[in-house]
Amino acid sequence: MKFSTEELIEGIQSGNKRLIAKAITLVESKKAEHRQQAEELLKKIMPLTGNSIRVGVTGVPGAGKSTFIENFGRLAISDGKKVAVLAIDPSSAINKGSILGDKTRMEELAREENAFIRPSPSSGFLGGVANTTFETMMICEAAGYDYILIETVGVGQSEVLVADITDVFLFLKIIGGGDELQGIKRGIMEMVDVIFINKVEEDNLNKAKNTRLELKRALDFIPPKEKNWKVPVLLGSALHSEGLEEVYTTIDQFISLKKKTGSFEAVRTRQAEKRFDYWVQEYILSVMKKSNSVEEAYIQHKKNASAMISNPSTEAKLFVERFLSKDQD
Ligand SMILES: Nc1nc2c(ncn2[C@@H]2O[C@H](COP(=O)(O)OP(=O)(O)O)[C@@H](O)[C@H]2O)c(=O)[nH]1
Ligand SMILES: [Mg+2]
């Protein structure tokens, strides 16, 4: 990394997008020397973080998440806010590239001075998924972004991951396909704070209203995530920027309520604890990965588990014991 930590921090604080991007690349790096500088950087910017509204956006592929984020972002910018967009990129682990059309789809938002768009890789790592979206978010907060919008890929794991680092979880729903129950099956309904039925245009307004009724009925059976908050089901069109202002004010109301009841801070504390546990696992795995023989043993024990030679927990225990005994000699 040809930039010093001080240069990067200065760049972040002055809102230099090129240096913000460099800092993010540093934090995403797995290289030991980068990790050290990354930790140093993150430690120093910590006091500058915490001041954004963190919004997770989920929904099946094609629901309109990217379109929503682009136009919602522009709306926030027109209200004088700075907006950062992070999208968990499922492809980067496999082909090291980005399949997100988002970069191009969010063309108009990308052109805004007060917007910053960045795909967030989730690379496979000894069976784990090392994800630095949270750390990237810290950098964006230090750079003064007021809204951090995170798009999930609509896959279970990324949804949980995003729900665990955001203040508001927004579910984009489309009408029809008989999948009104889909979100319930997937456990989404337990995680959401706001639902937005998207692609509602004149010809399907009645259908949308039925969908809303069904969703509301379903929500009645789900224990409230946030006291005194009944999950609103809003209608609109992300493409035509209809109903987005209502989402904007609803999010504001939700954040105000959370701050009033103290749950805003309480949830963030819990989230930080989860991040701690997450990184403990990551670091243990990365220490293990340093040795080739350990990696071979890992693969072997995993194979035994998958072939049902013995049960997975036994194999995991054997593997860890083997690692620890190796470490001592
Ligand atoms: N008619 C209509 N199309 C929309 C709307 N929102 C998104 N789309 C379209 O739906 C497709 C998928 O949108 P995209 O934002 O990429 O969905 P994502 O996969 O959830 O990110 C694109 O062709 C969009 O133009 C909407 O409100 N109305
Ligand atoms: Mg998308």
From TrEMBL:
InterPro entries: GTPase_ArgK (IPR005129), P-loop_NTPase (IPR027417). GO terms for molecular function: GTP binding; GTPase activity; kinase activity. The keyword Magnesium does not apply. Pfam families: MeaB. The keyword Kinase applies. Gene3D superfamilies: 1.20.5.170, P-loop containing nucleotide triphosphate hydrolases. Its EC number is 2.7.-.-. GO terms for cellular component: cytoplasm. CDD domains: MMAA-like (cd03114). It comes from the Bacteria. Keywords: Kinase, Transferase. It is an enzyme of class 2 (transferase). Belongs to the SIMIBI class G3E GTPase family. ArgK/MeaB subfamily. PANTHER family: METHYLMALONIC ACIDURIA TYPE A PROTEIN, MITOCHONDRIAL, METHYLMALONYL-COA MUTASE. NCBIfam families: lao (TIGR00750), PRK09435.1 (NF006958). This is LAO/AO transport system kinase.
